[in-house]
């Protein structure tokens, strides 16, 4: 039986812990020169991810709702029936503390697989973080599927997805971002089998094209981005058009206006170099196909963040700079693994500290 005092300790401690996940990184974070990601949420520990999802489902991530539920539990004195208690007790125990040492010791051999050498390589850590990212995508998609699958047939058609709109509001010719014609284009691209409805995998590509493996949805996303940048509407981008919007990409990673002003030469050089890299046929223009390498800018997807979260963890915890993490290094820097909001520099390829090999591919 859960004691009343323990209930309070579990709920309050867990709530404070969850709030800390969206705070700033710990003071020990290293500062590097480069464009910076804004704070982003990522869970290294799948059990913490589960806790967050359960807490979100119970409404406990909202302070007002949390206080309301806490008051209700104490007023009813229903210590053991409250669904919030079970999930928190699973993680925090009766002392109200998450034992990160035990968690890291448990998780380490699960990551140390390719090969099992007592160290975790960049690829092993990235593989793990991408798995957590996929779990988040699946969870998010499942939630949207339940919301939109009106007939509960396990698939969503376009009418179901746009059921919140009246017939008068549906204008298929309106292809501006977020309008019916825009969604219809993406829906047709995501419908691989042409069935007129999207199963869970197709629906995930539909909702998260930047994270999907469907070439059609990704090409569509590239065309959308080109249209947004194509000022003279000639179907391609000149360097001037690219440069004008490149500032949006640059700012999109968290750089302030002061950063850009202070580093305008680096910014200009980077824009020119990136344009040259993207312009594969060297005709002085960029097509939608050539925009593929920047498909995740300025709104990165979960897999993009998973890779950069991996870089953040390696730079924080790899004390001897051998490109691998030992259990001791992870334990010494456990704050990095359990401070899920991170802000990390995105470095140019030539400035990458880690020699990344295709160990898992």
Q: What's this model, at a glance?
A:
One of its GO terms (molecular function) is calcium ion binding. This protein is mainly α. The chain has helices at 4-20, 46-57, 63-76, 83-92, 100-111, 122-148, 158-161, 180-190, 200-207, 215-229, 239-252, 257-262, 264-278, 302-317, 327-332, 334-337, and strands at residues 35-36, 40-41, 120-121, 156-157, 197-198, 324-325, 341-342, 345-346.
Please explain how this structure is put together.
By secondary structure, this protein is mainly α. Among the domains are: 4-99, no CATH class; 152-294, no CATH class. The protein is 53% helix and 4% strand. It is built from 16 helices and 8 strands. It has helices spanning 4-20, 46-57, 63-76, 83-92, 100-111, 122-148, 158-161, 180-190, 200-207, 215-229, 239-252, 257-262, 264-278, 302-317, 327-332, 334-337, and strands at 35-36, 40-41, 120-121, 156-157, 197-198, 324-325, 341-342, 345-346. The strands form 4 sheets. The chain has a two-stranded antiparallel sheet with strand order 1-8. α8 packs antiparallel against α10. The longest helix has 27 residues, at 122-148. The protein starts with a helix and ends in a 15-residue tail after the last strand. Residues 1-13, 19-39, 79-87, 251-262, 344-352 and 355-361 have low confidence and may be disordered.
Chain oligomer state: single chain
Please report the total strand number as a whole number. 8
Beta content comes to: under 5%
**Overall 3D form:** globular
Spatial order of the strands in the main sheet? 1-8
Q: Whole-Å distance between the termini?
A: 49 Å
* SS class: mainly alpha
- Global Rg: 23 Å
User: Secondary-structure element sequence?
Assistant: HEEHHHHEHEHHEHHHHHHEHHEE
Number of helices: 16
Residue-averaged pLDDT, rounded?
Answer: 76
Low-confidence segments, ≥5 residues, pLDDT <50? 1-13, 19-39, 79-87, 251-262, 344-352, 355-361
Main sheet record: 2 strands, antiparallel
State the share of residues found in helices, binned by percent.
40-55%
């Amino acid at each position: 039986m859960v004691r009343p005092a323990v209930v309070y300790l579990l709920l309050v401690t867990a709530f404070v812990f969850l709030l800390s996940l969206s705070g700033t990184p710990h003071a020990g974070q290293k500062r590097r020169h480069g464009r910076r990601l804004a704070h982003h949420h990522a869970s290294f520990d799948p059990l913490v991810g589960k806790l967050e999802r359960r807490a979100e489902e119970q409404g406990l991530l909202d302070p007002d709702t949390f206080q309301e539920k806490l008051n209700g539990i104490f007023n009813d004195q229903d210590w053991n029936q409250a669904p919030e208690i079970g999930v928190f007790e699973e993680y925090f125990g009766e002392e109200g503390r998450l034992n990160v040492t035990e968690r890291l010791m448990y998780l380490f051999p699960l990551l140390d697989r390719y090969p099992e050498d007592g160290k975790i390589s960049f690829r092993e850590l990235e593989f793990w973080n991408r798995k957590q990212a996929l779990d988040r995508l699946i969870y998010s998609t499942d939630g949207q599927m339940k919301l939109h699958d009106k007939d509960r047939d396990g698939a969503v058609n376009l009418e179901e997805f746009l059921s919140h709109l009246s017939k008068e509001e549906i204008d298929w010719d309106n292809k501006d971002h977020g309008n019916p014609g825009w969604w219809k284009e993406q829906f047709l691209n995501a419908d691989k089998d042409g069935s007129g409805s999207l199963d869970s995998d197709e629906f995930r590509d539909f909702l998260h094209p930047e994270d999907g493996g469907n070439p059609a949805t990704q090409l569509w996303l590239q065309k959308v981005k080109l249209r947004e940048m194509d000022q003279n509407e000639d179907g391609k981008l000149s360097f001037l058009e690219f440069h004008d919007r490149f500032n949006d990409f640059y700012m999109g990673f968290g750089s302030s206006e002061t950063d850009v002003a202070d580093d305008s030469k680096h910014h200009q050089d980077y824009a020119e170099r990136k344009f040259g890299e993207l312009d594969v046929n060297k005709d002085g223009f960029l097509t939608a196909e050539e925009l593929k390498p920047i498909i995740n800018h300025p709104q990165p997807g979960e897999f993009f963040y998973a890779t950069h979260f991996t870089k953040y963890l390696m730079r924080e915890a790899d004390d001897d700079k051998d490109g691998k993490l030992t259990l001791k290094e992870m334990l010494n820097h456990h704050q990095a693994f359990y401070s899920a909001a991170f802000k990390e520099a995105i470095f140019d390829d030539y400035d990458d500290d880690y020699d990344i090999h295709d160990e898992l591919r």
